[in-house]
Design goal:
This is Diacylglycerol kinase family enzyme. This protein is of the alpha+beta class and 323 residues long. 29% of the residues lie in helices and 35% in strands. Strands 5, 6, 7, 8, 9, 10, 13, 14, 15 and 16 form a 10-stranded antiparallel beta sheet that branches. The protein is elongated and about 60 Å long.
């Protein structure tokens, strides 16, 4: 019987290649796998091309070693193929790994899971973006699509500072965008229902709910429920932002995590500044071009988009003892 073989798609900026090759060789030997195929990403190709090459070689597993952009690019190609993705978190966000409760900053444990774990089917988001120049592009995402303040924040973040201090680099960008008084003006239709016009500072469509720093933005989001969750941030002045902070950091971040806290939430009122929706397909058009981000990476400006969920389209390696 032929030994299974993996490919490892890696971002050379995010990994210690010599140390990683030694760790992979040791895990291959322990797990009885053939020699891994190594494929490097580039600025022009963050992972789609190398992943297609891996599939041409008929590998049994593709391990993504890099940040959220590398993971997203690999998943975009693997979706629907049945070939699983293994995660080797190497960036600042590691959003999918966090939402799957995988161990971070532990290469040996991550490789044990990749080579010897079990497979979990999760949903894959798809988005079709109409850009300012009328060009239409399509991409997959695993965590979130964002329009508004979060996308502007990412556009304003200093990449060199982010490389040095991680998510602390966003503090300056947050301060910059919160001074932006412009609101999104959009018309949307959810699951084919009658269109609605709204104004909001931010709209985020999420397949997962958790962000770094233990922030639970979408408390009901699940990676395998066949739905995405939507949050609209609609603060009116300082009090509106206080309402949002209270919902996200106190109710979602503290109360929801215990049974007693959830009982206290039973009488909590929804606030106008923050609205939640759920669905399978969202179509929207913007009054003017706006910055858009996918899984923490900017994708330019959009004037319209359509996003939908492909249920269970991606297989992810998780620990063998995971429930």
């Amino acid at each position: 019987m032929t030994a299974p073989r993996a490919a490892l798609v890696y971002n050379p900026i995010k990994v210690d290649l010599d140390a990683l090759k030694a760790a992979v060789a040791a895990q291959e030997a322990e797990s009885g796998w053939a020699e891994t195929l190594w494929l490097e990403t580039s600025v022009d190709d963050p992972g789609q091309g190398p992943t297609k090459k891996a599939l041409e070689e008929e590998v049994d597993l593709v391990i993504a070693a890099g940040g959220d952009g590398t993971v997203r690019a690999v998943a975009e190609v693997l979706g629907g193929t049945g070939v699983p993705i293994g995660l080797l978190p190497s960036g600042t966000g590691n959003l999918l790994a966090r939402n799957l409760d995988l161990t971070l900053d532990d290469v040996e444990n991550a490789l044990q899971t990749a080579f010897g774990g079990t497979e979990r089917a999760i949903d894959l988001g798809q988005v079709r973006i109409r850009h300012e120049d009328e060009k239409v592009t399509q991409h997959a995402y695993l965590v979130m699509v964002g329009l508004g303040l979060d996308a502007k924040m990412l556009a304003a973040t200093d990449d060199e500072l982010k490389a040095k201090v991680g998510w602390l680099a966003y503090a300056k960008a947050i301060a910059t965008v919160l001074r932006d008084k412009n609101q999104l003006r959009l018309r949307y239709s959810l699951d084919g229902k009658a269109p609605r016009n709204v104004r909001a500072h931010t709209i985020m469509v999420g397949n997962c709910g958790s962000l770094p720093a233990n922030i639970l933005l979408l408390p009901d989001a699940a990676v395998d429920d066949g739905l995405f969750d939507i949050v609209l941030l609609r603060p009116e002045g300082f009090f509106g932002w206080l309402q949002i902070m209270g919902k996200i950091f106190w109710e979602n971040g503290v109360l929801r995590r215990t049974a007693a806290g959830r009982r206290l939430m039973g009488s909590a009122r929804e606030v106008r500044a923050l609205n939640y929706l759920r669905g399978k397909e969202l179509v929207l058009r913007l009054r003017r071009p706006e910055e858009i981000e996918l899984d923490g990476d900017g994708f330019g400006t959009a004037i319209a988009m359509k996003t939908w969920i492909e249920p269970g389209a991606l297989k992810v390696r998780v620990p063998a003892d995971a429930s």
